């Protein structure tokens, strides 16, 4: 279980997170929505300990990761996988080396065993047999799928998705959505997805949270979100120019 | 007028603060590099890969610069020494200049241009494309994976490249002096044996190791702290080359003052 309590973060004078409270349910997909530059990625980076908060707690299985040193943080991170916006595959490694990275580093598995897991994960993301390809030879959608295979290679409990559908064509977008749903189900993962693609969030999310002006202003099931009377949420979902959200 | 002075002082203050901040950042990176360097598992494969990149792949450029520097040095010093009939000193002048000064400095500068810039660009690209964050997320420390191999490889390989440069510089000097300008071979070589001591070579190699540390530390620091996309990577690369080159020349003076 991940619990975020009264999380604050500012960059110089700009408040990005201003008292975020959020509970992420185990074995479910929670989608965090909000405007571009509204602090979603910053929140995600706090959840995995890439950023330290100014104040507040991030509890992962009741351990406050904001207070952990590097060694403790690394232990917690082994529970996580993360799919970065552009994949963040290592350029200098081929697909097999990318997907098998965590297995090589953190397990005592033999080369053949790692090779088998890599092949299985690549098959799970619909890309069997591309082990020898380099990241530069892959399309944007393929790169994201390989990155997902890498994220789930070590059997994490929690997978974070940072805008997984940004920059994809509609068909690939749909494929990635299905992949998130299938992966979550098949591996019984707790998923946190950051997105502002309205169609996708209702497809993949069991719970949806809206981050606005540094706070979670609405949290609920897709149905509850759709029927919410919150004017900020309504404007965001309809993409209207008129409303409480100011366009800068 | 007052406003202009105040603005200038403000800019000066900012530059000084930024300089101090960067030096502090490099020192912290250096300390944490040493902290990770000997912590198992040692990533020997990564170190060897970097040794190939920094060392083997810089050999050609170092061979060229070393040889031609020795040759031009012989040519220039020959014209000077000929004025008072001391052409025989050309060999020792070339050998001393190469081993004590030009070998380490030129090798350091060449490796900075070739490998130091690549370190800044590669790590900078990894930073802006979140590959460094990905390493953190996968519980792998980027300093151990990225910085330690580059610094270890540079400290080991720059002295080796310098040894090649020294040798070829002297050989180039021999070719110009003895073969082209007809200096007596016996006198040329005898003066090298007489005036060049082993300490000259050792100290030159120690300087080279220090230059290797400087150029890799600066390249890695600049790459690691890159911000702002492709423009940021370009800026980090340029800054790394400029700062490392100037640092090598400044450090050279102080090391020479201490060692020789």
Structure, explained:
The complex is a heterodimer of chains A (248) and B (260). Chain A is an alpha/beta fold and 248 residues long. Chain A contains ten helices and ten strands. Chain A folds into two domains: 149 residues, P-loop containing nucleotide triphosphate hydrolases (Rossmann fold), CATH 3.40.50; 77 residues, no CATH class. In chain A, the strands form two sheets. Chain A has a six-stranded mixed beta sheet, with helices on both faces. Chain A has a four-stranded antiparallel beta sheet with strand order 2-1-4-5, with helices on one face. In chain A, β9 and β10 form a beta hairpin. In chain A, α5 packs across α6. The longest helix of chain A is centred in the C-terminal third of the chain and has 17 residues. The radius of gyration of chain A is 18 Å and the shape is globular. The model of chain A has no long low-confidence stretch (mean pLDDT 89). Chain B is built from nine helices and no strands. Chain B is mainly α and 260 residues long. Classes of the chains: A alpha/beta (248), B mainly alpha (260).
């Amino acid at each position: 279980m991940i619990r975020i309590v009264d999380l604050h973060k500012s960059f110089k004078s700009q408040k990005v997170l201003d008292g975020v409270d959020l509970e992420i349910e185990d074995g479910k997909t929670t989608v965090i929505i909000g405007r571009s530059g509204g602090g979603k990625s910053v929140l995600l980076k706090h959840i995995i300990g890439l950023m330290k908060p100014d104040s507040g707690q991030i509890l992962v299985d009741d351990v406050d990761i904001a207070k952990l040193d590097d060694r403790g943080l690394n232990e917690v991170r082994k529970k996580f996988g993360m799919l970065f916006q552009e994949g963040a595959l290592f350029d200098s490694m081929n697909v097999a080396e990318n997907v098998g990275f965590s297995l090589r580093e953190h397990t005592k598995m033999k080369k053949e065993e790692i090779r088998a897991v890599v092949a299985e994960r690549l098959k799970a993301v619909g890309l069997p047999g591309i082990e020898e390809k380099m990241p530069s030879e892959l399309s944007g959608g393929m790169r994201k799928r390989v990155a997902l295979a890498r994220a789930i290679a070590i059997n994490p409990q929690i997978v974070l998705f940072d805008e997984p559908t940004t920059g994809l064509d509609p068909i690939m977008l749909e494929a990635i959505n299905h992949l998130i749903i299938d992966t979550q189900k098949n591996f019984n993962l707790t998923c946190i997805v950051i997105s502002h693609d309205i169609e996708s969030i209702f497809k993949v999310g069991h719970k949806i949270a809206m981050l606005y002006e540094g706070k979670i202003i609405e949290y609920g099931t897709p149905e509850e979100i759709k029927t919410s009377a919150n004017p900020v949420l309504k404007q965001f979902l309809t993409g209207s120019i008129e409303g409480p959200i100011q366009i800068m | 007028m007052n406003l202009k002075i105040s603005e200038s002082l403000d800019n000066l203050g900012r530059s000084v603060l930024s300089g101090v901040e960067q030096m502090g950042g490099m020192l912290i990176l250096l300390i944490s590099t040493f902290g990770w360097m000997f912590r198992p598992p040692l990533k020997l494969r990564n170190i060897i890969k970097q040794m190939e990149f920094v060392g083997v792949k810089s050999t050609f450029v170092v061979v060229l610069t070393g040889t031609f520097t020795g040759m031009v040095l012989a040519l220039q010093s020959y014209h000077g020494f000929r004025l008072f009939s001391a052409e025989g000193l050309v060999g020792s002048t070339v050998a001393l200049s190469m081993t004590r000064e030009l070998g380490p400095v030129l090798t350091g500068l060449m490796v900075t241009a070739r490998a130091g810039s690549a370190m800044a660009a590669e790590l900078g690209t990894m930073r802006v494309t979140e590959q460094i964050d990905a390493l953190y997320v996968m519980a792998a420390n980027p300093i151990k994976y990225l910085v330690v191999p580059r610094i270890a490889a540079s400290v080991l390989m720059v002295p080796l490249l310098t040894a090649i440069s020294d040798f070829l510089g002297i050989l180039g000097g021999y070719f110009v002096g003895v073969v082209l300008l007809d200096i007596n071979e016996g006198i040329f070589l005898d003066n090298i044996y007489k005036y060049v001591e082993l300490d000259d070579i050792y100290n030159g190699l120690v300087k080279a190791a220090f230059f290797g540390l400087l150029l890799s530390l600066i390249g890695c620091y600049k790459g690691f702290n890159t911000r702002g996309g492709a423009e940021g990577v370009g800026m980090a690369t340029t800054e790394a080359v400029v700062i490392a080159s100037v640092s090598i020349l400044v450090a050279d003076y102080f090391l020479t003052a201490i060692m020789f």
